[in-house]
Amino acid sequence: MFKSCNYCRHRKKKCTLDGPWASRCTECEHLDLVCEFSRRQPSQKRRQTSQRIASRVSAAAAVSEPRATGERQWASTGSVVSVVKDGDSQLNSADTKYPTGQKIILKDETQLELDSTATKYREHVQPLTPFLPSEMIHGANENWDPTLQQCVELAASIWLHSTPLAAILEQAGHTLKSTTQSEMTLPRLAGVLLMILRYPVDSDCIQWIFGTTHASLLMGEDLPAPILAGAVVANTWLRLVGSSLEPLDVPETYLMTFVESVDNSTFAHHYLRISDLGLRLDRLRSMEERGPDAKLLWCRLEYECLFWAVQLPTSLLDLRDEMPARPEAITIHSLHNLVVLTFYATVLSRQDTLGKMLALRPVPGVLHYICSLIRSVFICPREMLIHWSLLSDIQAATARIVLQLWRQTQFENFQGLLNLWDDSLGRYPELAMEVRDEIGPGPWNIDQTDGYSVFWTFRDLRSLHLQDAFPQLAEATMPSPNPLIN
Predict the structure, then answer these.
(1) What range defines the domain where residue 13 resides?
(2) Taking all residues of the chain, what is their mean pLDDT, rounded to a whole number?
(3) Residues 6+ apart with CB under 8 A from 279
């Protein structure tokens, strides 16, 4: 809904009605003007400021010196592959096929010449998915298991800062299918776990991969820690986006124990940490909500989710939708959003139990916060979906969450936000048709808010409430505030 008519907005006057049946506001009535309401356009000043800052950040990154030997430079302005349009992407109707809002991607411009498979793993695979035991990594290419070597080469070829090629994606699909149709040796399992969330994999292959993993665990076999961590991470995210896989039976602290062995300056370290939050959420969803520790467990998870972002390094921050970010930041941001969205959608869908226990209701403040998360997920550029197919699954899972929330609350913004989702890779045609049938042709009245402000205001207020209910939460979490985002 709109706060002011066109005249009052232009004159910066308070727009008021004499009564609920008044056809014109008091100002228009006094001046005998037509009282009209038009969609509020994004601030021209804000658009220009955002574009100016984005250009400055890109240019500064292009000329900055590497901070350490071997560290790559950020992309120059010319390497930005997507641009922001008008600072907002909430469309008025469903006639336009693709969303207008895009994310600026800052990509590394230095392409290293990598000869050996071991070097490719260490440079382009391990910083993202460190799931190979050291004994499987060989300096000489002829010593590698052939299937594992092929998986590493493919995973390295679609590094987040590379340009994805259709031939590579086709080869990856063929490799995964052929690997899962033969005996699943340990090196082969390690190889497919490097790729399973990076490339679309059909359900039969997924069931075969995790059937092998389950069988190994049931037989008491000791899987190498990196391989088991990769399996737990993949299983967790696939379950969160809607897979019917059975959860893996591992100790609750398994992932966080493995995190200690991973360099905290890498994407992989924070990828594992957000995966641990997702794993805890997945377990809580299937637990009895009325247990003695249930409330504390749910509140602790929510508190850590709210404060998780402030513990990220600056290279992984994705502060505003209209600001530039590295591919790693966009990826980790989408992963975090899925966990938080799933958390609140679960709570709001169980109002009589969880909602009452956590004092959460579908009131406008909560729904606006959820909308800010949804919008960030939906404007993830198509190129990122090709680099990491899990992001496409996250978008589809988010669309299902929005449909659920729309049917539950009839909050008008959800219709317009659903229009932002486009099944650009053609992986969810039935869901895309369901979304179009649900939201209709538009236009929709969208309450346009500053998602950045909503996000941090909600976080601060909600975290204060949780601290008041459980003072020990703050002591246990102890987030180190990042001055850039507070």
Answers:
(1) 1-38
(2) 80
(3) 232, 236, 255
Do 245 and 362 sit in the same domain of this protein?
no
List, in sequence order, every residue forming a beta bridge with 325; answer none if it has no partner.
Answer: 105
Residues 321 and 244 in one domain: no
- Pick the closest to residue 241 from 416, 455, 427, 383 (CA basis): 427
pLDDT for the residue numbered 420? 86
- Go through 6-39 and write b for each residue having 16 or more CB atoms within 10 A of its CB, e for each that does not: bbbeeeeeebeeeeeeeebbbbbeeeeeebebee
3-state SS class at 51: helix
Check whether residue 248 and residue 325 sit in a common domain: no
What's the pTM value of the predicted model, to 2 decimals?
0.79
Is the pLDDT at 67 greater than 50, yes or no?
no
The SS3 call for residue 157 is helix
Measure the CA–CA gap between 74 and 64, rounded to whole angstroms: 8
State yes or no: pLDDT of 220 exceeds 90.
Answer: no
- How far from chain centre, in Å, is Cα 295? 26
- Let me know if residue 72 belongs to a domain: no
Same domain, 341 and 483: yes
Does residue 93 lie within any of the structural domains? no
With contact defined as beta carbons under 8 Å apart, do 237 and 275 qualify? yes
Q: How many other β-carbons are positioned within 10 Å of the β-carbon of residue 303?
A: 22
